[in-house]
Amino acid sequence: MKFGWIYVSGTTWDERKEIVKDALESSIPAVYVPKEDIKKVRELGNIKVASKDLDADIVIIEKSGDLDILRKAKELGKETGIYIPIESKEDEEYAAEVSKYPYVDYIIVEGKDWTIIPLENLIAKLTDSNVKIVAVIEDVGEGKTAYEILEKGVDGTLLRSKDTNEIKDFSRMIEKINAERVKLDYATVKKVEPIGSGDRVCIDTCTIMEEGEGMLVGSYSRGLFLVHGETVENPYVATRPFRVNAGPVHAYVLCPGNKTKYLSELKAGDKVLIVNKDGITREAVVGRVKIERRPLVLVEAEYKGDILRTILQNAETIRLVGEGGKPISVVDLKEGDRVLIKFDESARHFGMAIKETIIER
């Protein structure tokens, strides 16, 4: 996962405070501040503080600084880093050398005259290293380039921008870079059958969904159906664009890292994947899970000769995603309709994909 920090600058605390607040509101994980600001930053909110002081969460020293400070920081359970301006080939070699030390977590490199070439060299040299490379950048465009160098890119960036409006753009860029993509395809509906009542789960998230977005849910781990969010206007009930009426308690839902959970396991604070019709994903935090007894419908669909099944609540507002990314209600679903699924040849063990033969019926 790529990450981004904010370099907090300004001549007064009032100026620097506004930058820290913007970072907090944009879910930036850490800010780099003068040591006199550490306590004040913590009073503003829960965010990691990087600074040249042992009281920081991420303890930084300058190039050729006292490495014993970092050893001490590691003993205290802190993260550590070295800030290295790259002004010569010797600086690049120094960065590669200190990256071998077990008490160094980050090397923060700032290109003075050269930017891309030193990063290329360091990325190539440190491919198998545990140290994380953080590039100092002046704007979002530089950040995008840094994350793409040699296809692997740096692990993180430190934005030192003169425009505080860039912080939100910076956060969105990192979110987009980290977004997982899943391969979706169409399966053909073979049967839609009411099956009686059962306990079904609504997942209420802390995120607003758009048309074409939902969650991947299914009775079988090998075939998850894209269940549409409750974003579609209708004359009967108000939309709930934060909600996916996902299915019964036994069903799987796709979560970050290509893991699954049973719907019955979900609780507030868990993370799930919101997926759109093109397979682009974003993480969402679960705000609440509602389990209620409702009438259910069985949906069977065929994909390349394999029969996949899922169960959903039998109601007009529950929709799968049909051709062209259009939501289609389960009450209108009929044999021959095509709906989006994620097919996976792997089995699942405690939610993780494994190569094992498991028969699902």
From TrEMBL:
InterPro entries: DHQS, DHQS/DOIS_N, DHQS_C
Pfam families: DHQS, DHQS_2nd
GO terms classed as biological process: amino acid biosynthetic process; aromatic amino acid family biosynthetic process
Record-level Gene Ontology MF annotations: 3-dehydroquinate synthase activity; dehydroquinate synthase activity; NAD binding
Amino-acid biosynthesis listed as a keyword: yes
Alphabetically ordered keywords of this record: Amino-acid biosynthesis, Aromatic amino acid biosynthesis, NAD, Oxidoreductase
Domain 3-dehydroquinate synthase C-terminal residues, every copy: 187-361
Enzyme Commission number(s): 1.4.1.24
The keyword NAD is assigned to this record: yes
Domain 3-dehydroquinate synthase N-terminal: start-end pairs: 1-173
Catalysed transformations (reactions): 2-amino-2,3,7-trideoxy-D-lyxo-hept-6-ulosonate + NAD(+) + H2O = 3-dehydroquinate + NH4(+) + NADH + H(+)
Function: Catalyzes the oxidative deamination and cyclization of 2-amino-3,7-dideoxy-D-threo-hept-6-ulosonic acid (ADH) to yield 3-dehydroquinate (DHQ), which is fed into the canonical shikimic pathway of aromatic amino acid biosynthesis.
Family stated for the protein in its record: Belongs to the archaeal-type DHQ synthase family.
PANTHER family reported for this sequence: 3-DEHYDROQUINATE SYNTHASE, PTHR33563
Protein name per UniProt: 3-dehydroquinate synthase
